[in-house]
Write a structure and sequence with these properties.
- This protein has about 250 residues and is an alpha/beta fold.
- The protein has a single domain, classed as Alpha-Beta Barrel (TIM Barrel), CATH 3.20.20.70.
- Helices cover about 45% and strands about 15% of the residues.
- It has eleven helices and eight strands.
- It has an eight-stranded parallel β-barrel with strand order 1-2-3-4-5-6-7-8, surrounded by five helices.
- Helix 3 links the parallel strand 3 and strand 4.
- Helix 5 packs across helix 7.
- Bound molecules: phosphoenolpyruvate.
- Phosphoenolpyruvate binds next to strand 8.
Length: about 250
């Protein structure tokens, strides 16, 4: 039985004041939703503050990115050891915005996943196809190559420690959500890819759906057999919406 996970990706949003209000409003929900894990991923700048705010609640704190190198002359980067210093448990890796805007390749993403694993941080490996790729029938090939880059460099055993987030690029921040059936199809495809190597690990790997999840569509997405929760962008900034999404995950158990 996989334990659902609902993660908020705050992206480049937030402030000291807004973070305090948001976490304050989410604490009750996280306390109530005992059958799931709840996590938020603020900007690096606010990791300390949010970790402190969450210290007496079950809300986990994750980072949105991480460097694949240990230390040194990498201006502007943040290392896995720095995240560990703050006891950060999760890190998003290969978010489509990182892949598209900052040209992160499959190889770079795989290097980051490996570094996170080496340092004991759970990588949330984001994969997903663009609309063009879907329309030209390349969806499965794209997802497969994104997953395979990690499989080839880290091995199937690593997936016992990896969370996967399927995030179709055409659904991120657009208000257009994959239908539950579309999400299930890709989640099952990913799980089958893993099962070709190890059925037990595949059956235990958490696969989140991300892409315009909101209070209205979360329940039907989470009802799908291979959807184990959500990675939520815009709606994670609104306490009432994120709470409703967490409650939908709790009700799906
Ligand atoms: C995301 O950025 O990971 C995301 C899913 O965003 P949104 O929910 O806003 O589509």
């Amino acid at each position: 039985m996989r334990r659902p996970l609902v993660m908020g990706n705050w992206k480049m949003n937030g402030s000291l004041l807004a973070n305090k209000a948001l976490i304050g409003a989410l604490e009750v929900t996280a306390d109530d939703c005992k059958a799931i894990d709840v996590a938020v991923c603020p900007s690096f700048v606010y990791l300390s503050q949010v970790t402190e705010l969450c210290s007496s609640s079950p809300i986990h704190v994750g980072a949105q990115n991480m460097c694949d190198q240990d230390k040194g002359a990498f201006t502007g980067e943040v290392s896995a050891d720095m995240l560990r210093d703050l006891e950060i448990g999760f890190v998003l890796v290969g978010h489509s915005e990182r892949r598209a805007i900052y040209s992160e390749s499959d190889a770079m993403v795989a290097a980051k996943v490996n570094k996170a694993l080496e340092k004991g941080i759970v990588p949330v490996l984001c994969v997903g196809e663009t609309l063009e790729e879907r329309q030209s029938g390349e969806m499965q090939a794209v997802i497969e190559s994104q997953v395979r880059a990690v499989l080839d460099s880290a091995s199937i055993a690593a997936f016992a420690q990896i969370v996967i987030a399927y995030e179709p690029v055409w659904a991120i921040g657009t208000g257009e959500t994959a239908t539950p059936e579309q999400a299930q199809e890709v989640h099952a495809f990913i799980r089958n890819l893993l099962a070709e190597h190890d059925a037990k690990i595949a059956s235990r790997t958490t696969i989140l759906y991300g892409g315009s999840v909101n209070a209205g569509n979360a329940a039907e997405l989470f009802a799908m057999a291979d959807v184990d929760g959500g990675l939520v962008g815009g709606a994670s900034l609104k306490a009432a919406d994120f709470s409703a999404i967490c409650q939908a995950a709790q009700a799906s158990v």
